[in-house]
Structure formats: structure tokens, C-alpha cells
Amino acid sequence: MIISTMNGSRELLLEALDIARLPIHRMRVAELGSRDIGDLSQTAIPSKLVWEWFGAAHISFAPTGQRGSVRHDMSQPIEDCDEASDWIGACDIVTNFGTTQNVHQPGSEWGQYEAFRAMHELCRVGGLMVHAVPHVEGYTGGGLYRYDQRWFVELARVNDCHIHQMQTRELSKDTRLLYVIMERRTRDLFDMGHHWRNPPTK
Q: What predicted TM-score, i.e. pTM, was given to this entire model?
């Protein structure tokens, strides 16, 4: 997913920055996947370059390690990634722009658990987790997983997180996205809840 005004994800990120109330040059930002920012794919640039241009400390994780990202499969424990050790519990913003929908462990749903746990563990107490993911209804694009509001409400409840923003955005009759901004409020270890290890799928 490109972070763009055309799909509303750029506005979601700007809203998170407004909620965070920190100068960008003082921020530590972690990104699941290696995303671009821009309104056209031909002119979009890696978000890492944008964050660092504004002075933020930035790390991104991708299986291939492309465009300056750290090579890491998000279906595996974040603690297995040596480069992540200094970022755990230290990030002001952790983003998931269409990454978790593709995270999977064959024969298991623990890939989803590890991806969302990584976001929780990377985020500091008082930091924000920003999600832009396919909605379970009205999305026929790529990816293995779809999500709904109920799933994120339960995720926030069992982890004592505060939901600042949750909305759907319908880009077309085949593309409905779910946008969520959550705040981590405690140092408690991550829990997906007994019935929430497997998100809705289609």
C-alpha cells in the first residue's frame, strides 16, 4: 500500500502525528513493511527517506530487506531480529500500512500473533500503533487476511489500549479499508485473547 492522499492513509498518518504531539525530529518510528509515500506510484518515494529527511529515527522490517529495511519475517518473533533490540519498547509510532494482511505461518495462525505482538512490543507506553488494513466486507484485493472493527476493539480491550480513531474508507465497490490508531497504555505483555488468534478471512 502506498501512503497517499488518494486512499486516505496519508491523512491517517498525519492524524497520528497530531495525536502524538511530538516534534518529528524527536520521534522513533518503526514500520512493518517498506512502504512508499506519494500520490502516484511513478513519483512515490520510500517512506524511510521522508521520515529521515524530517529528522526522525526510523526502522522498517521486510522479508527481503529492500530499500533500507531490516530483513525480518514478521511471522517470526521480533526478538529474533538483532537489529530490533534497541527499538523494542522505544517507538513513538509503529505503522502497519497493509502489511499484516500478508503475514502467515503455513499451517498455523501464529504469524498473525507475532506480527501484532511485534507492533505492541516495539511501541513505547504512550506510543501509537497505526493500522490501514483490508476490511472483512467489501475488499477483493490481495492478501490473506481481512479485519473488522470488532476484532480491533477486542485487541484493544485485552491489551488495555486506547483507540483514538477507527473508521472505514470505501475507495471503490471492491476496496474497503479499515483505519485504526491505537495507543499503548501499559507495560503488560501482549495478548490476542483466547478467541482472537485468527482474524476474519475471506
A: 0.94
